[in-house]
Amino acid sequence: MSFSATEAAFEGFRIVRRNPLAILFWGLAYVIFFVAFFALVGGQLATIIAQVETLQGSEPDMAQLQALGMSYATLLGFGLPMGLIVGAVLSAGVARGVLFPADKAFGYLRLGADELRVMVVNIILGIVIGIGSFLLFTAVIFGATLVGQSNQGAGVLTGVLLGLAAIVLLCWISIRLSLAVPITVAEKRIAPCASFAVTKGKALPILGMAVIAGIMSFLVSLLGSIVSLPVVMMTGGGLDQLATMDGLSTMQIVQAAGVGLLVWGVLNAIVSALQLAVLYAPFAAAYRDIKGLPHE
């Protein structure tokens, strides 16, 4: 099978058509994540929203910024490990739906060796992209500062040009590594660098595929917002209502606004599940079309 960027870009919709129940299972995974996360840090989340609203339109002092930073650190401490687990399960499930379409049970979701390997690969990719971004933009700042010492205008121009070059290089690296998760699920191994071999000569088509998928994901989000906004407003306003609940415990927040938060969570879970299919499935389809199905 030959790789077509436009064909692969629509793979997410094909998964939904082949197995509509998959969206329900993926949405349920998001709801479980939201409920568990809120149970742990619901009160802290209300504090952050209240702090952000307080800082809007004013000059924050250092004490306020430090308090906000500590609040965010608490959320990150709970959210990062939970997000890694949920992200691995869902991304592996989407890849499985493309590469092993007969495994329809539970919307292609599993909790096993594949998911563990995908989580490790996601961590490796995050570290590589994070360190690469830090080094590149440190070099950009250093170069612009060095040139700017003798000519400020030339320093600004150098910073802009180097910044654009850094962004292009990061995009290229991301595209070359973009098939790491499908490779992990298909070949049952942790080999993120194997994506370089699979994407060789295909970087531009894969980039075009990613752009198309990104546009469609945005449209799905926009349509979901239009449909869900009236319902969310009628049931309390979603997370926005937490700004008035700073200082309350998680149980008190649930008693006061549980229905509205649950409605918001379910609607966002459905939209997020659709976006997941639209964004992730094309990369598994690209791997399939370049290398073939694993069992063939």
Compact description:
79% of the residues lie in helices and 0% in strands. The chain is an all-alpha fold.
Can you characterise this structure?
The chain is mainly alpha-helical. Helices cover about 80% and strands about 0% of the residues. It is built from 10 helices and no strands. The chain has helices spanning about 5-10, 10-20, 20-55, 60-100, 115-150, 150-175, 180-185, 195-200, 205-235, 250-290. Helix 4 (about 60-100) packs across helix 5 and helix 5 runs antiparallel to helix 6 (about 150-175). The N and C termini lie close together (about 10 Å). The mean pLDDT is about 85.
Protein traits:
296 residues, mainly alpha
Low-confidence stretches: none
Overall 3D shape = globular
Mean pLDDT: 87
What's the helix-strand series? Answer: HHHHHHHHHH
- How much helicity do the residues have? over 70%
Structural class: mainly alpha
As a percent range, the share of strand residues is under 5%
Largest sheet, in brief, is: none
What is the overall number of helices?
A: 10
Number of separate strands? 0
- Rg for CA atoms: 22 Å
Between the first and last Cα atoms, what is the distance in angstroms? 12 Å
